Amino acid sequence: ETGVTQTPRHLVMGMTNKKSLKCEQHLGHNAMYWYKQSAKKPLELMFVYNFKEQTENNSVPSRFSPECPNSSHLFLHLHTLQPEDSALYLCASSQGVMNTGELFFGEGSRLTVL
Amino acid sequence: QKEVEQNSGPLSVPEGAIASLNCTYSDRGSQSFFWYRQYSGKSPELIMFIYSNGDKEDGRFTAQLNKASQYVSLLIRDSQPSDSATYLCAVMTDTGRRALTFGSGTRLQVQP
């Protein structure tokens, strides 16, 4: 069991749907992240939040909309996605933004866009 | 040009052998280097980090760093089938943007 939980674990959606991914960390960390993992590609950093303030948006299309209501919860709202957005979306947390380089990842949400 | 480059593998080694995983990086300003292990269907977990040139040992794992050559490696001694996983190299630059840049990973298969 990890200290970072993500729901749902699997999601299938059409291009016109609106859905959300949820992440919750139980580690008392201050920073939370969304990463995208596609087959044969490196992990791509999408968003960084520090004390629930967004500190980085890595040129992510506006069809991905993050929300961080507090330091323990992170959401990724999805709308009008494209098939190429199908991937594993990983949430992570850390004690401070990259103080040590140790990220604690959730199990991921596998997204399929039809 | 890829910022962090790894051979995708699979790297296949027999049980008990030494597995050698390699990584090169392009940013000379990189200061911190990390190895994450990701089992199939699971999330990545940190197993080693190294900041200084040379070797760093932790149990069966040894991380090696050569900043002049922009090269970092992970050696796994006495490889076990349970070591079969994808190993992700990650690099952090301490100037400006503090974020981890990951390689695409090397898949290791340890044959019993």
What does this molecule look like?
The complex is a heterodimer of chains A (114) and B (112). By secondary structure, chain A is mainly beta. Helix content of chain A is 0%, strand content 56%. Chain A has strands spanning 4-7, 10-13, 18-25, 31-37, 44-50, 53-57, 64-70, 73-79, 87-94, 104-105, 109-113. In chain A, the strands form two sheets. In chain A, strands 2, 4, 5, 6, 9, 10 and 11 form a seven-stranded mixed β-sheet that branches. In chain A, strands 1-3-8-7 form a four-stranded antiparallel β-sheet, with no helix packed on it. Chain A is globular. Chain B is an all-beta fold and 112 residues long. Chain B contains no helices and eleven strands. In chain B, the strands form two sheets. In chain B, strands 2, 4, 5, 9, 10 and 11 form a six-stranded mixed β-sheet that branches. Chain B has a five-stranded antiparallel β-sheet with strand order 1-3-8-7-6, with no helix packed on it. In chain B, a hairpin with a 2-residue loop joins strand 6 and strand 7. The radius of gyration of chain B is 13 Å and the shape is globular. The termini of chain B are far apart. The chains are: A mainly beta (114), B mainly beta (112). Chains A and B meet through loops of A and strand 5, strand 9 and strand 10 of B.
